[in-house]
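> example.struct
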């Protein structure tokens, strides 16, 4: 069963990331709940402090008199002496819960308590509604973001709701839970949700007043939270604006990134799939028009990397095709010669003629064998990964030269080693093939060969090995210099008439050297040696200084 692979484009990933970033203001808005809770705690603490001050003042006043209960005159006088220095509504009650004095009615003379309470409630509700409307309800952003809250309140209204902003509005006897707790000599507190035109929260704190360890009155402090709510509304609106602007900028950035990243990547993916036909032939025109080739960013790097890779693949394909064609051509000649010799042998009765054609067949078979070995050598080089070893450069080079010169005793050989290290970390097989092919090639044309090995330092660990092979032969003309590294190319037959040399020589030696240099990311060049007068092959190979040499 084929697995289902979900496609997750880059533009979708970027959009999701940006949206998550945009929700940071929303997270901050959610943290306002903690802020609201802390503010309510501070308000309650303020209520308690004010209640304690009034309670202590009343206890001090009553203790200096013979009265056993708090009276209306004393209570009102105490609140008047405070001269309005309070930020909450303070009411002084008798032990039974009857209102004796109210800070909200001190400025209203000759008005009864119930009317004062109604006036205060009406004024508080009006103030709360007007402030909220001007700051929140009339703004589009508030209406937009408050839709879920309003729906929630309609489906699930507050647990308690009253027709006015104050729970005790219109009551003669105050009988709330916090008052009952104070009547029993304990501190009482209560938070109530009230209506009166808007939903708000009022904090009530009740503190008992003692004389001779008996409760003689109650101080009731209340405070509405509409100011806190107003601040929270303003903060929420500001955060909502930040959120909306974030969404706008995110949309702009997402569109920009889509056209800047996602669209070019899709176009590049389509171009790479279309740059080759079903037979694997590369369309160079498509490759040269890859999207982003001139861009100075990662997409440009990717496009240029694709171009380089495809060109390398195209070059490899052409190399393989040309190599197969060359091998086919080179194998045809000896096979044709073998076939002709066999046909003549069938009809020949001359023993001497038979011997000559038999020897010709043997020579061509040897030639084929050398061709196969050369082709196999090139095939092994390309793509092979050989282990590196610490080569004792002088001894290793001398051994290679000695094994070759055994078959050429009349050749004079010179070896010069100019290296700072005794050992070099290289692939021994590659190094041996390079030297053996170059020395064998020189020995076929010259009687004096000079090999120079030296190193060039670029830093402490990475260096360049330079190999120079010079001879006193006829040298290489400018016309042939561009051909000598081609497979199966040889001009040896033009200067040498020795059949054995012709058979042994395949025209692959210098091709193998060139292939190894390419594999090792090195360089090879040919020129005329100024001292010996013949050919000068110079090779530069990067290598790493072995740890053994560093020690």
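> example.seq
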């Amino acid at each position: 069963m084929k697995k289902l692979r979900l496609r997750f484009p880059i533009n979708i990933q970027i959009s999701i990331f940006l949206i998550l970033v945009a929700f940071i203001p929303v997270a901050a808005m959610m943290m306002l709940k903690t802020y609201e809770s802390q503010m309510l705690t501070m308000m309650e603490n303020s209520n308690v402090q004010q209640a304690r001050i009034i309670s202590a003042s009343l206890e001090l006043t009553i203790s200096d008199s013979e009265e056993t209960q708090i009276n209306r005159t004393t209570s009102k006088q105490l609140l008047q002496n405070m001269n309005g220095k309070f930020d909450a509504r303070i009411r002084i009650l008798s032990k039974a819960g009857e209102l004796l004095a109210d800070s909200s009615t001190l400025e209203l003379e000759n008005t009864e308590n119930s009317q004062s309470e109604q006036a205060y409630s009406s004024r508080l509700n009006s103030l709360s509604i007007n402030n909220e409307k001007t700051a929140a309800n009339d703004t589009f952003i508030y209406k937009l973001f408050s839709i879920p809250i309003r729906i929630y309140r309609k489906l699930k209204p507050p647990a308690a709701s009253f027709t006015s902003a104050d729970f005790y509005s219109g009551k003669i006897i105050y009988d709330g839970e916090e008052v009952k707790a104070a009547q029993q000599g304990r501190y009482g507190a209560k938070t109530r949700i009230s209506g009166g035109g808007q939903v708000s929260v009022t904090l009530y704190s009740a503190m008992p007043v003692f004389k001779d360890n008996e409760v003689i009155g109650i101080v009731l402090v209340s405070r509405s939270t509409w100011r806190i709510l107003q601040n929270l509304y303003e903060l929420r609106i500001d955060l909502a604006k930040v959120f909306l602007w974030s969404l706008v900028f995110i949309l702009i950035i997402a569109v920009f990134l889509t056209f800047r990243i996602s669209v070019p990547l899709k176009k590049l993916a389509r171009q790479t799939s279309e740059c080759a036909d079903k037979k694997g032939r590369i369309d160079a025109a498509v490759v040269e028009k890859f999207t982003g080739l001139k861009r100075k960013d990662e997409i440009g790097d990717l496009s240029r990397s694709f171009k380089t890779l495809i060109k390398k693949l195209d070059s490899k394909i052409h190399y393989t095709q040309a190599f197969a064609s060359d091998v086919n051509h080179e194998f045809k000649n000896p096979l044709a010669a073998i076939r002709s010799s066999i046909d003549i042998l069938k009809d020949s009765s001359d023993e001497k003629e038979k011997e000559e054609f038999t020897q010709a067949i043997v020579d061509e078979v040897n030639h084929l064998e050398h061709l196969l070995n050369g082709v196999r050598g090139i095939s092994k080089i390309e793509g092979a990964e050989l282990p590196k070893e610490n080569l004792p450069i002088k001894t290793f080079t001398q051994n290679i030269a000695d094994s070759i010169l055994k078959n050429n005793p009349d050749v004079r050989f010179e070896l010069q080693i100019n290296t700072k290290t005794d050992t070099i970390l290289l692939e021994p097989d590659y190094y041996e093939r390079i030297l053996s092919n170059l020395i064998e090639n020189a020995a076929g044309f010259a009687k004096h060969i000079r090999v120079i090995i030296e190193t060039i330092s670029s830093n402490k660990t990475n260096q360049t090995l330079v190999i120079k092979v010079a001879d006193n032969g006829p040298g290489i003309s400018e016309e042939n210099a561009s051909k000598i590294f081609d497979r199966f190319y040889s001009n040896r037959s033009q200067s040498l008439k020795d059949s054995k040399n012709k058979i042994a020589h395949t025209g692959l030696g210098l091709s193998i050297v060139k292939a190894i240099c390419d594999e090792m990311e090195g360089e090879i060049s040919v020129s005329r040696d100024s001292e010996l007068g013949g050919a000068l092959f110079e090779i530069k190979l990067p290598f790493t200084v072995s740890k053994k040499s560093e020690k």
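> remarks
The mean pLDDT is 75.
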